[in-house]
Amino acid sequence: MSRGGMRISRRELLRVASAAGLAMPFAGLGLTDAQRVFGASPKPGKLVFLGWTFGKIYEGFAARFKQDHDVNVDMLLEPNVEQAMSKLISLLAAREQVDGSKVIIQSLGEYIQRRIILPIDEFPGAGAYIDQFTPFTKESLQYQGRTWGLPYFSTIWLPLYNEEKLERARMEPFKTWDQLVEQARRAKREGVARYPLLWVAGVGHEQLPGTWFTLTWNRGGVIFTKDLKPELGPGSVARETLRWWQRTFTEELSDPRSLEVRFIPAARLFNSGDYLYLLPTQHYYIVWNNDPAQSPIAGKVRFMMMPGDGRTLGFTNPYVITRGTRNPEWAWTLLQYLAGKTKTGEWMQPNKLMRDWMLGSGYKSLMLGEIITREWPRWGNIDVVINQWQKASSILEVAPAMREPWYIKWSDLINVQLQDCLRGKTTADQACDNMIRAIDEAKRRA
Amino acid sequence: MSFRKPEDVLPGSGVLSIKIRGGELSREWLAALFILPAVAFTLAILAYPLLSAFVLAFHRVTAESLIEGGGAFVGLRNFAFVLSDPTFLTSARNTAMFVGFSVFLEVVLGLGIALVINDRSVWLSRVTRALILVPWAIPPIVNGLLWSFIYNSKYGYLNALLYQTGMVKDFVQWVGDPRLALFAVVVAYVWRTTPFGVILLYAALQGIPEEVHEAAEVDGATLWQRFWSVTLPLLRPVLVVLLVLRTTFAFMVFDEILAITQGGPGNATWTLAWYTYSHAFRYLDFGVGAASGFVLALLVGATAVLYTRYVSLRVEY
Q1: Three-state SS at A237
Q2: What number is the ipTM of this complex?
Q3: What's the pTM?
Q4: Are the beta carbons of B101 and B187 closer than 8 angstroms?
Q5: Do B154 and A272 touch (CB under 8 A)?
Q6: Residue B3 — φ and ψ, nearest 5°?
Q7: Model pLDDT for residues A369-381, shown as the tens digit of each residue
């Protein structure tokens, strides 16, 4: 059997499959079949994981793997996603060993199409994991009838507000976008806030486009249709949304600093207490707002539902097995430790991410589990998050083109257009027309 | 093999040779022999990757074909794409501005500081000489991060300083405003790189004979005249070297862009190195990345030739 250049012999596959088959009676009782085949093949000298840092989520990981399997794991951690991606490609091109990695949803399509990562469906026990995927995890991780990894974390977009500030202004969280503008105008007029609104609108694939996509989706629009035609023409929801959004900047209701900040800097800016709303951000960044150690307004920041019918977007980023693995079986074991269960059946990493960082899980059982009800309330009103989660769709619904190899280039180009528009250099019409044209430019190289 | 006796080497004749079995090596061959290890080392370290990248520039190379080999030959199409890409042209314009401002500032500031620390009557010159190297010792990426804190539009030290001294009425978006962002990166970059020029020029100043200045002074030259007509011409060779080196490095600015602006806002700080990196490692289009890298190399080479052609290297006392 060949998976993108990495070969597993039929004999090896049968051996692993037989081991899994022995465990079939236990299937459905907590992935026992997957655990049974840990270490089924000879131990490799080492395993290599390449990713980017996020807090201390990998602290103790390699030691635990060594303790359980007597195999060393080299943890190559880069400071950010861009550098991690560059290093992955460089290592693969140099035919270096890289067994596991993590990928952002925006790059996943390209990685699949360029055969940089391997599908996991045929590994023993994969089915049991996949059965537990939440709906938008399935949509995020499955493509062309295959599954391309296990969930690293899930998140959704929703607004935050400063409760104290809103109370002082005698306002309730807004219910419609028009009401938001009215509140912002009033707050500005009455001197409650110089810029009542803060957005996550810094350059990036998830940040500025993510905010616009979420606003558009919430208003009933999409960026691309299912057959990848852009929905950005005159009168489209996306275009009108951009026009509306731009007005909040030209009226000076939105802080122009929004255009500089990605998620964490936006959360820190919101901690200044100067704003009424931080508009839609990924849910777990509230940790930065309500942590007394790093926020002067800790405890005052609350979640709220997206307005209207509450539609929002979410996604799941995956851990993947790369084609640079020397031993797919052990890479699968590594992947399970990163994103599934350990030898003893413990959801080690997924639980850690949920407990310490409020990151959502891609598994139904964990999202319904006690960690959320026990741990998440310390960061905010989680009933809202849970309700909002029910109304979240995969970001691929609004931009199915994210699966295309040209998407990342296009994403760069639309960042420029969106920033120019929100700064008032161009109109929403010009920006959207340029974005449509940019599709051809991006495709030309794909 | 034996060296010739000292008396065999005629004074002033410039002849140096080594006797080997059956003959002797001429001065030229001897020189070639001495530089052979360096050439071999350079070829192994530089030539192979350069050639490899050159081949990539003429192929359609995706991540898949880079790993597996077998990218299709596309002739000059990658170069045609690069040269017709509006983003490349924007990057070239930004790079030209970046190079112009940064090299000018580096040379002017470098010369100014070198003159001051060369003057023993300035009591702080010794302290400055020691401290001047600190920015140079900072890794570029760390420098970028440091300045991104300094520039922060809400909490940055620069804004705090300007606001508290009444120089600005509101915090400025140094890196968020497309009109300022490139200059913000220039300042961060120049802060790190100026010490290189200072050290080079300071060393050159130390080499200028004191008698030359004294003679000019005796002839009644003013301070400015002594600088303009004596010091500056004598510094010309070092200035050319400095210009060539600093221009080359400025063309390749990357770390500060990565850490401070990542090409933004919009494409206001896209430079040629960032363009090359983006195509190779973000869009996984290695052919275009390599082609862009070679265009950049040609530009740097052409600039170096211009410098050496139009600024004389010779100095006569």
Answers
A1: helix
A2: 0.70
A3: 0.79
A4: no
A5: yes
A6: -75, 150
A7: 899 999 999 999 9
